[in-house]
Amino acid sequence: MSLRFKSTELQCFNWFYNISPCFPVNSSKVNIITDPGKFYDTLCERFKNANRRISVASLYIGTGDLEKKLLDITRENLMSNKTLKLDVLLDYQRGTRGEVNSRSMVQELVKVAQDQCKLSLYQTPRLQGSWSKLLPARYNEILGLQHMKLYITDDSILLSGANCSNDYFQKRQDRYIEIEDVDLANFYQELIDEVTKFSKQDCSKNETQYSKETLIKDVNKNIVSLIDKWKKKQTVKLSSANDGTKDTWVFPLIQMGEFDITQDEDATCNILSSAPKGSYLRLATGYFNLTENYANTLLKICKANISLLMAHPNANGFLGAAGPAGGIPHAYSLIAQKFWERVVDTNQASRILMLEYERPEWTFHAKGLWYYPPGSSRPWATVIGSANLGERSVKRDLEAQAAIFTISPQLQERLHKECEMLHRHAAECGAALQSRQTPLWVQATVSLFRTYF
C-alpha cells in the first residue's frame, strides 16, 4: 500500500512518507502554547503529575528561582512515586559552565533519588583531544552543542525551541507544541536514549571511550536504524488501520550534521521546493543565518510567496552581552542585510518579505515554518522544534523537529493564531537593513566565522 495524503492541498508533500515515520493523531491531542509563562506552568503541571517517566533534552537547565521550583516539584513527585524515572540530557560544555550550573542543579535532585534519575551530558566529537583544552569556556560551545528541546512526560511530548531556563519562562518568545501520543513519545524517548549512549554519564566511573571516527560511525548507524525501525513499524500500522478519527499527521525530523543525519535539512529544502505557486510559507528563526543551500532554494527554486521573521537586534538574546558576544546582534543583522541584497538583485522583493520582531523588554527565539496552500487563509502544516535554519543547526548541533500536517479546520485556526501572534510584533525591515550600520570588527568577524553562527 502506497501511503499518501488524500487531501489535494497536501499531496505535494507525499514524499514525506519516504523520509520519516508518520504518526497519525487526532487534532484534539495537539496543544499549542503561545506564552512563555504558560510553557513554564505546563512543565510544572506535567512534572508534578507524571506517573512513569519524565525525560528532558535541553541545551541547559538554568539556575534561577523558577528552575529550582520546577526541580523541587519533580523531586516531590519522585519521592512519592518510586516507579517514576527521570532522564535529563544536556550539553556538556553549556551545562558545566560556572560553579553553579545545570549539572550541579540536577545533581542535588539525583542525590535524593539516585536509583530513579539519570543525568547525561553530550559533548561534540569536535571537542575531543586538544581542542577541549585549547578553547576557553563559552567559546568552545561554538564547535557544536546538544541543542534538542524535548520534554516528555508519560505519553506526551512537548516540542520546542525553548531551553529549560528562567529567561525562556518569562519574556523570551519561542514556540511550544505538545502532542499526546504514546508512539510519538516513545520515538523521541528512544532518540534521547541513543544520544545518551554516547554522552558522559554524570554518575558513571566506567565510561566507554570512543575515537572520533568510531563515534561518528556508530551514532549515524544507530540513528538511521532508529528511523528505519519506526518507519517500518508505522507503515505497517498505517497500512492496516482504517481509523477516520485521525486528522493530523506528525513526521519527526532529526538533524545531526556532525553524524551525517540530515533529515530536517532535506525536508526543509523539499518543502521550499515542493510548495506550489500561489502558496504562502511563513518562516521564523531566532538567529538569521541561512545556509547557502537554503538561500539558493528560496531564491532560485521556491515558487511560493515567502515571509522571513527574525529578531530585531533589540530582541536578540545576546544584546548587551559582555565582550565579543555583544556584537552577535549586529552580526545577524549584517547577514540578513546581505541576503536582502540578493533578494533585491534578483528582483524578488515582491515575493520575499523580511520582517523583524521587536517588543519592549522581550527577546525573540521562535523558529519554524507554516504552510498556507494556494487560496487558503489558514496553515495546513507547520514545522516545530529547535533548528534555526542556520549554519550551525545544519552542520554542528543536534536538533530535533517535527513536521505537522492537518486537515482539521480547528487546528489550522489555532496554528494561524499562533503565527499571527508572533507577527503582531513584527515590522517589514528591508529598507532598515540597507541603511543599518555595522561595526567594522563585526564585519570582519562575520566574513571569517559566519559558519559558526
From TrEMBL:
<keyword id="KW-1208">Phospholipid metabolism</keyword>
<dbReference type="GO" id="GO:0005524">
    <property type="term" value="F:ATP binding"/>
</dbReference>
<keyword id="KW-0547">Nucleotide-binding</keyword>
<keyword id="KW-0067">ATP-binding</keyword>
<keyword id="KW-0443">Lipid metabolism</keyword>
<dbReference type="GO" id="GO:0005739">
    <property type="term" value="C:mitochondrion"/>
</dbReference>
<keyword id="KW-0496">Mitochondrion</keyword>
<dbReference type="GO" id="GO:0032049">
    <property type="term" value="P:cardiolipin biosynthetic process"/>
</dbReference>
<keyword id="KW-0808">Transferase</keyword>
<dbReference type="InterPro" id="IPR016270">
    <property type="entry name" value="PGS1"/>
</dbReference>
<protein>
    <recommendedName>
        <fullName>CDP-diacylglycerol--glycerol-3-phosphate 3-phosphatidyltransferase</fullName>
        <ecNumber>2.7.8.5</ecNumber>
    </recommendedName>
</protein>
<dbReference type="InterPro" id="IPR001736">
    <property type="entry name" value="PLipase_D/transphosphatidylase"/>
</dbReference>
<keyword id="KW-0677">Repeat</keyword>
<keyword id="KW-0444">Lipid biosynthesis</keyword>
<feature type="domain" description="PLD phosphodiesterase">
    <location>
        <begin position="142"/>
        <end position="168"/>
    </location>
</feature>
<comment type="function">
    <text>Functions in the biosynthesis of the anionic phospholipids phosphatidylglycerol and cardiolipin.</text>
</comment>
<dbReference type="GO" id="GO:0008444">
    <property type="term" value="F:CDP-diacylglycerol-glycerol-3-phosphate 3-phosphatidyltransferase activity"/>
</dbReference>
<keyword id="KW-0594">Phospholipid biosynthesis</keyword>
<comment type="pathway">
    <text>Phospholipid metabolism; phosphatidylglycerol biosynthesis; phosphatidylglycerol from CDP-diacylglycerol: step 1/2.</text>
</comment>
<comment type="similarity">
    <text>Belongs to the CDP-alcohol phosphatidyltransferase class-II family.</text>
</comment>
